[in-house]
Design a protein that fits this description.
The protein is of the alpha+beta class. The protein has helices at 5-14, 19-37, 82-100; strands spanning 47-54, 68-75. It has a two-stranded antiparallel ribbon with strand order 1-2.
């Protein structure tokens, strides 16, 4: 799948999240479609995925090099409503980022 970054940013903002939340919601939708196409049951508690996150704060925005970590999120593939999947993804990332900092 291919979406322009600006489109994902707009979608994320409209749903009350971020560009990253919209990207996770798009991945969740794709995985949901894949599982359904295969005839597999959708895991009620979601699929666990690892998402890369920056570990830099605003003061380090001009620093060279990368500081990247990972965040485990539960992708809510069983949720039938796209907006619900997006909100759940946003909650997971917000919770994980607060805990990791």
């Amino acid at each position: 799948m291919h979406y322009p970054v600006q489109d994902l940013a707009v979608i994320g903002e409209r749903l009350g999240g971020s560009l990253h939340d919209a990207a996770l919601a798009a991945c969740t939708a794709g995985l949901r479609r894949l599982l359904l196409a295969r005839g597999e049951s959708l895991p009620v508690h979601g699929l666990r995925a690892m998402a890369p996150v920056t570990l830099r704060d605003a003061a380090e925005s001009l620093s060279l090099g990368r500081r990247i970590g990972s965040l485990l999120v539960e992708l809510p593939v069983a949720d039938t409503a796209p907006a619900g999947r997006s909100r759940a993804d946003a909650r997971w990332t917000a919770c994980g980022l607060r805990r990791d900092r």
